[in-house]
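To: structure subgroup
Subject: Chain for Friday's discussion

All,

I'm putting the inputs and outputs inline so they're searchable in the archive.
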Amino acid sequence: MESEVFTPLLEQFLLTPLVAWVKAAGHSSGNDGTKLSEYIELLDGIYLNEIMLEINPKATVQRTNKKVNNDSTLRIQNLSILIRQIKSYYQETLQQLVAMPLPNVLVLGRNPLSEQGLEEMRKLLLLLLGCAVQCEKKEEYIERIQTLDFDTKAAIASHIQEVTHNQENVVDLQWLEGGDLPPEDLDSFSRNMAFHLKRLVDERDDQLEVHV
């Protein structure tokens, strides 16, 4: 994407509530102050992996590449580690299944300076937010959110709903442990399962079309 087209999109993205949250959540290693370097810091995965480790200090630590230097392979490795940790945390600790499409690390690694790259980063920050506000240290993260301005806090609250109360994005698996679903929840759960099944079939068919 041409820089004159992408730069305004990047500037808008960096002003979004999700970026405001993730900047408040951790301790930035510092960059040269440009919008691009701010985005690259997220993109390289080092900073975001550090936040995830704070969220889940019990996780098996996988070594990330500390010097990415615009190497797409190293970036993909770092982001793959992060997404595995996020997915595992939802499933094993929170007893939740991430049903929304996971962020595409190949896009983030190879074509990050694009509208699709920004959308994949948005999904990544959204899932990370869901981990933060449900972890053992959630009060700390919520306190940091409270330091932000009113409109940003309201938007973040809406994002939290996306990953805690929207079964199209994240499915609660705790009912598997406890037995039968309450009758009032069964209809909604069945509709959601049908929705996810249809999406999986559509994705499978799309993949087949690509390979034909």
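Points worth raising on Friday:
The radius of gyration is 18 Å.
Residues 181-212 form one domain.

D.
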